[in-house]
Design brief:
By secondary structure, the chain is an alpha/beta fold. It has nine helices and seven strands, in the order βαβαβααααββαβαβα.
């Protein structure tokens, strides 16, 4: 059985931030992944730092090196181009339906227009469900993308991709907002509970994480957060 590739999940913002240093860091991280044959798991977006790290690694290592995981509700925000194309296609399909004659089902040999409606409904039901059990895979310049049902499914799948990866797999947080912090501390909590045993770190670009790191140190000092192993902290 072959050893799975080293996979690192990167948590980061869907916005680029005001400073070029953040996008430069995302690009440099992707270049480092390429140099060390590391695969990427990320939030599946095409904008901001998410898009930068994914697009850069695809250019260097190819689509198979990148797996994005995005909730269906976030496509319009984090993959706006895909959402626009999807709405455009849905509009075309709707226009086509409007142009069909009223007795189209009977003329095509169906029992009635109502049965035709039921048949059409059945076809829609045959579409791939967008959840963690039935994944819709897309290919683009941002790698392969798995569409899941919600944010919790995204975090769980990203954790599993890293947990089941090869030696050296782990988690890295770049600069980001509330969602990035949520993803970071979710995997920290799972680590403390023994759900995974992978390393977790933050790339502290321009002191972005200074406040959070100071809080962690204070929480450890006050015994609200325990150190792990031989003096090793949670991060």
């Amino acid at each position: 059985m072959s050893t799975p590739p080293t996979r690192i999940a990167v948590f980061c913002g869907s916005a680029p931030g005001p400073s070029k240093t953040h996008t430069d860091a995302a690009r440099a991280l992707a270049e480092s992944f390429h140099q060390h044959s590391i695969h990427l798991a990320y939030g599946g977006g095409t904008s901001g730092l998410m898009g930068e790290v994914a697009r850069t690694l695809v250019k260097l290592s190819g689509k198979d090196a990148v797996m994005g995981v995005i909730p269906s509700s976030h496509i319009g925000v984090e993959r706006p181009a895909d959402d626009k194309d999807e709405r455009k296609e849905k509009g075309k399909e709707k226009d086509k339906v409007k142009k069909l004659p009223r007795n189209w089902a009977r003329r095509m040999g169906l029992a009635s227009s109502s049965s035709g409606a039921r048949a059409n409904k059945g076809m829609k039901g045959d579409k791939v469900k967008r959840d963690e059990k039935a994944k819709l895979l897309l290919d683009s310049e941002y790698g392969r993308v798995t569409i899941v049902s919600d944010l919790q499914a995204r975090k769980k799948l990203m954790m599993e991709l890293v947990r089941d990866g090869g030696p050296g797999s782990g988690f890295v947080a770049l600069s980001g907002g509330i969602g990035t912090v949520d993803e970071l501390f979710e995997v920290v909590s799972w680590s403390q509970m023994g759900v995974h045993a992978r390393g977790i770190c933050v790339l502290n670009v321009g002191g972005f994480w200074d406040g959070i790191l100071a809080w962690i140190e204070r929480a450890i000092e006050e015994k609200f957060v325990r150190e792990r192993g031989e003096g090793r902290k949670v991060l």
